[in-house]
Amino acid sequence: GGYVRLELSRDGGSTWSTITSATANDGSHNWTVTGPASATCRIRVTSTTVPAATDTSNASFTIL
């Protein structure tokens, strides 16, 4: 339950940009992907109420 912050890294987790600062923790979020392309993308999900509750993609994915 609650809300989570979603972030995207295009450099394997070195830097992060916010996709949304708060969305319902319901397992899905509609998002329009924009450039630049990268083969080392990662997503990070963090609870807005318990920032220590966070997780990052286990492997990189590609945005074309």
Features:
single chain; 48% strand; 5-stranded antiparallel sheet; 64 residues; 0% helix; mainly beta
* Uncertain regions spanning at least 5 consecutive residues: none
Mean pLDDT value? 96
Rg from C-alpha positions?
A: 12 Å
Order of helices and strands: EEEEE
Residues in β-strands, percent: over 45%
Q: Quick one: overall form?
A: globular
Could you describe the largest sheet, including whether it forms a barrel? 5 strands, antiparallel
Count of beta strands: 5
Helix content: under 10%
Number of helices: 0
Strand-pairing-aware structural class: mainly beta
Report, as a whole number of angstroms, the end-to-end distance.
32 Å
Report on the structure:
The chain has 64 residues and is mainly beta. Helix content is 0%, strand content 48%. The protein contains no helices and five strands. Strands 1, 2, 3, 4 and 5 form a five-stranded antiparallel sheet that branches. The radius of gyration is 12 Å and the shape is globular. The chain starts with a strand and ends with a strand. The mean pLDDT is 96.
